[in-house]
Write a structure and sequence with these properties.
By secondary structure, the chain is of the alpha+beta class. It contains 18 helices and eleven strands. Strands 1, 3, 5, 6, 9 and 11 form a six-stranded mixed beta sheet that branches. Strands 2-4-10 form a three-stranded antiparallel beta sheet, with no helix packed on it. The chain has a two-stranded antiparallel ribbon with strand order 7-8. The two termini are 63 Å apart.
Length: 501
């Protein structure tokens, strides 16, 4: 029988009994570590510790109301049956790790690839469970989200508008009147629409309590054109009237008449309204568009804030370049390894850049708004700080990858450190510096839309306000402007790179 060739890697392994290796692997990975397969052993040990820790954490989160672990475990496994699969997979992985240690000790073919696959699969399943992915909800609730998605995807009906002409009838209603006398109905004016409401005094709706039912008759309205019901409270605040979760709208007949019935709405009477009776207004409005199309207020505001966003990103990038270039030379190992002092400066600079870069711009934006207040200046500061760290790292890596030949040649002439940088380093790093700078400007423009959510100015602040107000068509205008601007910047940056890089 032919002998199996012993590889150089196998010669470096320690001789350990397969039984001992298997027993040691009861602590996952320890057998591999003792044999000498350090990397594999540490991966197994870290992975198993992480998986077991995550399982324990998930059980504590899912069954947090239970006092003891004896109560938590069955409750958690009943609520999340996927935990059974995860535990079985972890036990199987443990057995596979023990078998791998035994085979490694025997110098036989190991199952490390299969173990890695199982580790990846278990982490994937845990991630699926932790982030609560629900494919059923994803598809069954899509119809509910489709109207909103449609408004965001095609917002242009709100981008251009016409002037509106309002045709309106009104009647005064009262609450908290009790036995007090209330004024007569509003007089009817020839040629103007009017309302007849009964009763004119009643009780507002409350929590799970329906208010006084009103019978409303309208006369003199434009036939066939939708009428929308509005309500004005005692301090003049107007809102559309809802009933059964829907806004109340009616369509007048050929004579311009209509009838409707709905309860008084649910609202709080502000203290400034004084004592009763409190006067309310019921408004029946017909709105007609007149004149030609013109840009809406939302479109003009989106253009204004998009320009602000572009310059926000530009100013942050320009100031970032000014500070990042000198920092990058201090963070380049090939330039700073000449003496212990410069090497210490190198390590300190890299450490500070890594710390700053690890903190997202949105966090810096929160700090900046506390510092200088809300607005685009806070956004510039947030992006500037992150740009210095990011560009400093990219620039320094470009410096470290340059050809050392010119540096040695300039050194041979007796040039000092600054002269070496000017004549040997700078000419080589200009192309990558230009490329990184353009890329960072693109990032800053896109990032400025996010930091706007925390008061960093730009179109992001406006976008968040529109979303909170459920004005999805206006939000769609902002999204379109962001997408168009990023596409234009990408085209411009490509042309600049073609010319200078």
């Amino acid at each position: 029988m032919a002998r199996r060739t012993v590889t150089q890697k196998e010669r470096t392994l320690r001789t350990v009994s397969p039984v001992v290796a298997g027993v040691l692997s009861l602590i996952p990975g320890l057998g591999q570590i003792v044999i000498g397969v350090w990397e594999r052993g540490l991966i197994f040990l870290g992975s198993m510790a992480s998986l077991v820790g995550l399982i324990i954490w998930r059980v504590s989160v899912i069954a947090y109301r239970q006092a003891t672990w004896a109560e938590r475990i069955p409750v958690a496994f009943r609520r999340q049956p996927l935990l059974y699969v995860l535990v079985i997979a972890i036990i199987g992985l443990w057995a596979l790790i023990i078998l791998d240690a035994v085979n490694t000790a025997r110098r036989k073919k190991t199952r490390e690839t299969l173990a890695y696959i199982i580790i990846g699969l278990v982490f994937f399943l845990l991630g699926w469970q932790i982030v609560e992915i629900d494919m059923v909800k994803l598809f069954t609730e899509l119809p509910d989200a489709f109207p909103i998605i449609t408004k965001i995807a095609w917002p242009w009906p709100s981008a251009f508008v016409r002037d509106e002409e309002i045709y309106q009838g009104m009647e005064l209603l009262y609450t908290d009147c009790e036995d007090k006398v209330i004024p007569d109905p509003l007089p009817v004016i020839d040629g103007q629409p009017y309302l007849e409401v009964s009763p004119r005094c009643g009780v507002l709706s409350g929590y799970e309590v329906e208010g006084t039912m009103l019978t409303v008759e309208g006369h003199g309205f434009r036939p066939g054109q939708e009428v929308v019901m509005w309500w004005a409270d005692p301090v003049g605040k107007e809102f559309r009237v809802r009933y059964g979760g829907e806004f109340i709208t009616v369509t007048p007949d050929a004579n311009g008449d209509f009838s409707a019935a709905f309860p008084m709405p649910n609202l709080l009477i502000p203290p400034s309204a004084g004592e009763g009776p409190h006067e309310h207004k019921l408004l029946a409005r017909q709105t007609t568009s007149v004149g030609g199309l013109k840009p809406s207020e939302g479109l003009l505001l989106a253009i204004e804030k998009m320009v602000e966003t572009i310059f926000l990103g530009m100013m942050a990038t320009l100031f970032g370049i000014v500070f990042a270039i000198p920092v990058s030379f201090l963070a380049a190992h090939n330039l700073m390894a000449g003496s212990p002092l410069t090497l210490a400066i190198y390590y300190i600079t890299r450490f500070v850049l890594n710390i700053i870069r690890s903190i997202e711009p949105i966090i810096w934006a929160i700090v900046a708004t506390l510092w200088v207040g809300l607005g685009p200046f806070a956004g510039v500061i947030a992006l500037l700080v992150h740009s210095i760290a990011a560009l400093g790292k990219l620039y320094s890596e470009a410096i470290e990858s340059i050809d050392p030949g010119p540096i040695e040649a300039v050194h041979a002439t007796g040039a000092n450190w600054i002269q070496t940088i000017v004549y040997a380093v700078v000419p080589q790093v200009i192309p990558p510096f230009v490329s990184f700078t353009i890329y960072r400007w693109d990032i800053n423009v896109r990032m400025s839309t996010i930091i706007g959510a925390v008061g960093g100015g730009g179109i992001g602040f406006l976008l968040m306000q529109w979303i909170r107000l459920t004005d999805y068509r206006s939000a769609g205008i902002a999204v379109w402007f962001i997408a168009i601007t990023v596409a234009i910047l990408d085209f411009v940056s490509a042309k600049i790179r073609e010319r200078y890089v």
